[in-house]
Amino acid sequence: MNRSSSFSVKTELTTEVDFQCLRRWVVAFCIIRFDLEQGQVIEECYPPDCLTQEEELEVAFKSFPDSVSQNHNRSSIHDCIFFFRFRRQSPAVSENVSSTEIVELDSEGRSQASTGAKIEWKLESGKNGIVSRFLYGYVFNRQRHDERLKRGGEQKSVVILSHSPYSNVFRPLLQIMGPLFFDKGKKALEHIAAYVSLWPVPAPGKQMELPIGTATFKVYLPPAHSLPLYGDFVLEESASSMAPFLPTNQSVPQGLFHDADLFGIFRGILLHLWLLWELLLIGEPILIIAPTPPQCCEAVAGLVSLIAPLHCSVDFRPYFTIHDPEFAHLNTLHENDNFPPMLLGVTNLFFLKALRSIPHIVSVGNPAHHSSRSPFSSRNSTGRIANRPEGLGFQQLSLKKLSPSSLLKAVKTKRDGPLCLMSEHKEAVWTSYAAVTKPDTSILNRLIDVGMSPRVEESMSVVNNEILRRHFLELTTNFLAPFGPYFKTTTPLEGSSPFVKPPPLPSFNVEDFLSSLSTRGAGKFLSKRMSSNWLELYRRFLQGENFKPWFQRRRAVAVQEQNRLWRLARMKTDIKRFISKMPELEIVDAFHAIERHLLEEIQLQESGAALPESASMYQKLKGDLQAVFNVLPKDMQELLLMNPQRSTYLRRIYEPVKLPGHASIQVALSPCTSPR
Known about the structure:
Layout: H1 19-22, E1 28-35, E2 39-46, H2 53-62, E3 77-87, E4 102-104, H3 110-113, E5 118-123, E6 134-145, E7 153-162, H4 167-184, H5 186-197, E8 207-212, E9 215-220, E10 235-238, H6 262-265, H7 273-281, E11 286-289, H8 293-306, E12 315-317, H9 327-330, E13 342-346, H10 350-354, E14 360-363, H11 374-377, H12 394-401, H13 404-416, E15 428-430, H14 441-446, H15 454-480, H16 510-520, H17 524-527, H18 534-543, H19 547-572, H20 575-579, H21 584-607, H22 614-630, H23 634-640, H24 644-653
Parallel strand pairs: 11-13, 11-14, 12-13
Antiparallel strand pairs: 1-2, 1-7, 3-6, 4-5, 5-10, 6-7, 8-9, 14-15
């Protein structure tokens, strides 16, 4: 991403904002102040009246670092950037629809008629319209320490609310917007909103240039298949975007949060990355604890990105607080109760006691980074970390971890459990899960020692992140490869009719799949990296939160691709030659098949959902239907014309055509009525 480091409010720019265009990217800009008497107070919400009172309250509580976990310092101004995600409480969202339920447009809808193997998705909606089930809040928090003020300082946050998890867009936007607001006030919100409303429609998976003042963001948005299904926009997914091969361009994201700093945030527990990959893959609940909101957000984002290109259907919360409405329910769960599949990022150590039933706990980050807040706030546009203190490289880190004193300390940490964090923060993983996938030493050995100057460390961290991200992308792709046959499409065989319905995709049965996979084996790539009980990982994946939504979307894309191929075959068919050798009964069948496709095109045009190629397809089908009708015997023509609707549109399209080997038949299309 290229952007200028400065921004000036241009007086010549009109402040009239197209709110409909703005909503494609941003739901609202909020300014929230922490008041000693009133608590969190929303000073501004732009545009106004776009949130419910409950949503305003939730946004306000989530927009400040948790006071329980913060260590104050003496700096006069202290900034940090983090983000959160929460479930909308709008009545427009049906309560009995889960976040992964989807509606596939049927065979008569626009998506089934589209070309380019694209498919469109919508969320289930209530009576009041379609809304997204989650909102993302991107926060620029400023703590100003001043002994003249009550309690020696004040806090204020600038928040961007959006339906979209575009962290690589809103993070740099906050880096401009946050300081600008504290300099210019409310005027900054209006001008930023004016620029954002001029941005083009989001194009998932594409590089976009987004001007903002004197700066221009050049970003790749996450691909459509990695985005949650939401209703403000129609997502188009292509078969090519979900193909099982690795991308050649590493800058193109294959999932959400491609800019997350995997190496930086998990540096102290790198050997556990494969364990964490499995836990998220099978949809296990995980609690991530970090000293600061930026660090816990970075860890949650990093884990979500770890399973790309698989869409994460687990409910993830980058910054979860005790004020979240769902905490009340989670707090009632007992130690032996099943915890719902969630990925929670927290800074408040109270959660260690409150959420005792959560089976997997991960501690990341370093309290020494409180002053810099580097993991989520000081990254530049390429995803690099600036001004991080020097540290040990992986080789030195490995030697230290394998020393007798370190091994004893690790055993003590595991024995004491996560409650030991109450007295001292340390990076560790507490779980009883036995991982199937072994850490890849060849990948770990390729990681570069970044214990150098901050300038060298910045570029080396990028290299390490690319190594890790490519490895886990390859790991996930190979894990999903056995499902490929269930997305295999077909085309009409030579000499067969392209006007009949395409055959269904291969049926899927869990036990048959596992039995077949057990016979074939895991494949060369996975067999070298997994233990002998690898089949159990597949079984747990099939039962987990991620499989069904991913499989449904992949199947729908495959069905759409198959429809496109058959549609293309119909466009290329020479109908005169095709029916010249047919017996009469097959010609009648062809007539009915072509008629069905023609009526579908007419319905598309009448509903206003016609595609660019619908006109040419309509003309082609009309000509084909006319040609087939002409070669039918007169008594069959008259029988077909007894249907009033058919008689009407045949009158519009009828023109006699002489076919090779068939005499031209002139039929008097006299009005007929169906027998009563």
